[in-house]
Design goal:
The complex is a heterodimer of chains A (about 450) and B (about 240). By secondary structure, chain A is α+β, with helices and mostly antiparallel strands. Chain A has two domains: about 200 residues, no CATH class; about 240 residues, no CATH class. Helix content of chain A is about 55%, strand content about 20%. Chain A is built from 16 helices and twelve strands. A six-stranded mixed β-barrel of chain A has the order 3-4-9-6-8-7. In chain A, β3 and β4 form a beta hairpin. In chain A, α1 packs across α14. The longest helix of chain A has about 40 residues. In chain B, the strands form two sheets. Chain B has a six-stranded mixed β-sheet with strand order 6-7-8-3-9-10, with helices on both faces. Chain B has a four-stranded antiparallel β-sheet with strand order 2-1-4-5. The longest helix of chain B has 18 residues. In chain B, α5 runs parallel beside α6. Chain B is α/β, with parallel strands linked by helices. Chain B is built from seven helices and ten strands. Chain B has a single domain, classed as Rossmann fold, CATH 3.40.50.300. The chains are: A alpha+beta (about 450), B alpha/beta (about 240). At the A-B interface, α1, α13 and α16 of A face α2 of B.
Chain lengths: ~450, ~240
């Protein structure tokens, strides 16, 4: 291809600066909007997963289920040594673990009651909880007491309690018997939206004693890794290790077998279908629990492509008309070029180069604008109690744009621009030289 | 052997539903190295004949033979290549590429086609032509920074850059004042002598016609005079 043609194309763009700026601006706007959506979607799943991971105390979880003599399914890990051994043998490094038990309870204080998920952990030593939970009232020293209860600010307001107040918790033991326990408010925390508002923390040993789990046992083990994206491989490694140790395990890919919406649901359904002796373990990740959040990301990404195409359909009409006009304006030039030896395909290529350069310039400008907008938006600090808190990173909006996604958007824009300009470019290439030279503008 | 031969060439244009005959059966030959004037009033068919010789328009009937090649059955690609290799064009309105500098405009045809010339030879040839047309000091200027005469000089250099055997000039002096027009014709004549390039130009300026080696006069799409210098109007050698 003649090297002078791209040069002429580039200079033709500069020749009509205002027109070029307008069209490239329209392309830039489209790219900016789509990049912002992609950037948001890219960070969305990571932020939601990280926030949930902190709320739930892990990226990877191990839980145990057994049947009681009466046939009731009980969630408990009794042989804690075997889990510790599996963890040690799995080769997983840089991890923090948290043993938890949970029960849904009704908290009662001076005639007021509210349902809460009581999570029993080692409050005195859980660095994971201390890292993320900010106490508005009360202290971590108080939280180390055996009957300590940490509740969210919202729940504290509803119950009208203050640190030091004693509340009654009503719940069922793992065998289904009704029971009550007394807790003392040790801390009131900043809650992290609706999930935070239904989470309350108590001492693991005390909760176990109340719900019928022996000392040292627990319901599930949360494993916090150094990186969220390693949760899948870490879970697989642990699963393989536990399997090799001869432990009973729920299949990790049960979703393929049933009609469940998520792998986690599939695992739960599998549990209801079967009956077994002893403890059967389940290894799952935060991503499997939140796979529906992934569907939101897919929806956002799909929407972004749709928006890009719709926005660009409008721009394409403008591009096509503008290039038709440009063809008419340059008709004598085209005639001259054809006369002195420029082939038809080279005339077409010249217009297509022009369109391509405009698309690339617009795309780069759009990306830069999007990055600026992202930087600006990520400076905004959101209230921790804001409903969007779960999608935030440290209280700020965050964006993550996979490079391939940006390249795809640019390639799509370039392809659509070339498609829009092809017809006028082709018409220009088919002009007969004498006719073009004869045309009076 | 004639470098150009037209055999009963006709050209009709369709204007709406009306067919307008622009050239009504023209035959003539042009010798290699001649300085040829196609003269006649407006609408006589000068530009149409030049366009057909230049292979940028196709005759409705008849044959255009250039350098012994029958051009009738050539495809658009072949015609374009042939134009590039054999023909040079000079237009009334100069028709330079506005976004290219003087040097780039002159160089442009060299970048077309498949024939490649060594770079230093290429540069020397461009510099030589720019010097010939007196634009060495203007090579980095854009066409809109030049006068009409200078633009036409650029067009002449561009027409010659591929060393064509034929240069076609459609009323090359029409948009110039008479003094500049004369300079342009003198320049064309000088190049015609030096490079033995066949020049064919259309004009209705009698003064310019007088310096041509060969005059083809048209009226209403027909040749009314076809005379080489030293021949009388009937084509026989004059006593002069």
């Amino acid at each position: 291809m003649n090297p002078v043609l791209p040069r002429i194309a580039a200079r033709n763009l500069l020749r009509q600066r205002k027109r070029t700026m307008l069209l490239a601006g329209a392309i830039a706007f489209g790219i900016m909007i789509v990049t912002l959506i992609n950037g948001f979607a890219g960070a969305f799943i990571r932020n939601v997963s990280e926030n949930f991971a902190y709320l739930m105390g892990g990226h990877v979880f191990v839980s145990g289920t057994e049947y009681s003599p009466s046939g009731r399914r009980i969630s408990v890990i009794r042989d804690t040594a075997v889990i510790d051994e599996a963890l040690a043998s799995s080769g997983l490094r840089n991890l923090r673990v948290q043993k938890t038990s949970q029960v849904m309870a009704t908290l009662i204080f001076e005639g007021k009651s509210i349902r809460q998920n009581l999570t029993g952990i080692d409050l005195g030593h859980s660095s994971m909880l201390r890292d993320r939970l900010m106490l508005l009232k009360g202290t971590w020293e108080d939280a180390a007491q055996p009957d300590a209860l940490i509740i969210s600010e919202k729940i504290a307001k509803k119950l009208n309690v203050l640190p030091g107040d004693k509340v009654i918790a009503q719940f069922q033991t793992i065998t289904g018997q009704n029971n009550v326990g007394e807790f003392r408010i040790a801390g009131i925390s900043v809650d992290s939206s609706f999930i935070g508002s239904i989470m309350a923390y108590v001492q693991l040993d005390y909760l176990n004693s109340l719900i019928g789990i022996r000392n040292g046992e627990y319901m599930s083990l949360g494993i916090m890794l150094d990186r969220l994206d390693r949760s899948g491989t870490a879970a697989s490694a642990l699963y393989v290790t536990m399997k090799s140790m001869g432990l009973q395990l729920f299949e990790r890919k049960a979703a393929q077998d049933g009609n469940a919406m998520t792998p986690f649901q599939a695992m739960i359904r599998e549990q209801t279908r079967e009956r077994w002796e002893g403890t059967r373990y389940r290894v799952y990740t935060i991503d499997e629990i939140l796979s529906q959040a992934r569907q939101i990301v897919v929806a956002l990404d799909t929407a972004s492509v749709f928006i890009l195409v719709v926005l660009f359909a409008i721009v394409m009409i403008g591009l096509s008309n503008t290039f038709r006009m440009a063809m008419f304006e340059r008709i004598r030039e085209i005639g001259t070029m054809r006369a002195i030896g420029v082939q038809r395909n080279e005339v077409r290529a010249m217009f297509l180069y022009e369109a391509l350069f405009m698309a690339l310039a617009g795309s780069v400008a759009g990306l830069l604008l999007a990055f600026l907008a992202m930087a600006g938006l990520s400076l905004i600090t959101f209230d921790p109690q804001s409903p969007v808190f779960l999608i935030l990173r440290n209280g700020h909006l965050s964006f993550s744009l996979p490079p391939l996604r940006a390249l795809f958007n640019i390639a799509l824009i370039a392809a659509l621009t070339l498609a829009a300009v092809y017809a006028p470019a082709n018409a220009a290439s088919k002009l007969r030289p004498a006719e073009a030279l004869r045309t009076v503008k | 052997m004639a470098i150009i031969e037209l055999r009963d060439v006709k050209k009709d244009y369709l204007l709406g539903k009306v067919t307008v005959p622009a050239v009504k059966g023209v035959s003539f030959e042009i010798e290699r190295g001649d300085f040829v004037s196609i003269a006649g009033p407006s609408g006589s068919g000068k530009t149409t004949i030049l366009n057909m010789i230049g292979l940028i328009d196709i005759p409705s009937s008849g044959e255009v033979i250039i350098e012994g090649k029958h051009t009738g059955g050539l495809s658009d690609r072949e015609l374009t290549r042939f134009r590039h290799e054999v023909l040079g064009f000079i237009f009334q309105s100069f028709n330079l590429i506005p976004v290219l500098t003087v040097r780039e405009n002159v160089e442009f045809p060299l970048l077309l086609g498949k024939t490649r010339v060594p770079r230093n030879e290429w540069d020397q040839w461009i510099d030589y032509l720019l010097e010939e047309v007196g634009l060495t000091g203007w090579k980095d200027h854009k066409p809109n920074e030049l006068s009409g005469g200078q633009r036409q000089r650029v067009a002449i250099a561009r027409a010659l850059i591929t060393r064509p055997s034929i240069v076609l000039a459609d009323e090359p002096t029409a948009n110039l004042d008479s003094a500049t027009g004369e300079q342009i014709i003198d320049l064309m004549k000088k190049i015609n002598r030096e490079l033995q390039t066949t020049f064919i130009f259309s004009t209705h300026d009698a003064k310019i016609v007088s310096i041509a080696d060969h005059v083809i006069r048209l009226r209403d799409g027909l040749v009314i005079e076809n005379r080489r210098k030293g021949e009388d109007v009937n084509g026989t050698e004059s006593e002069e």
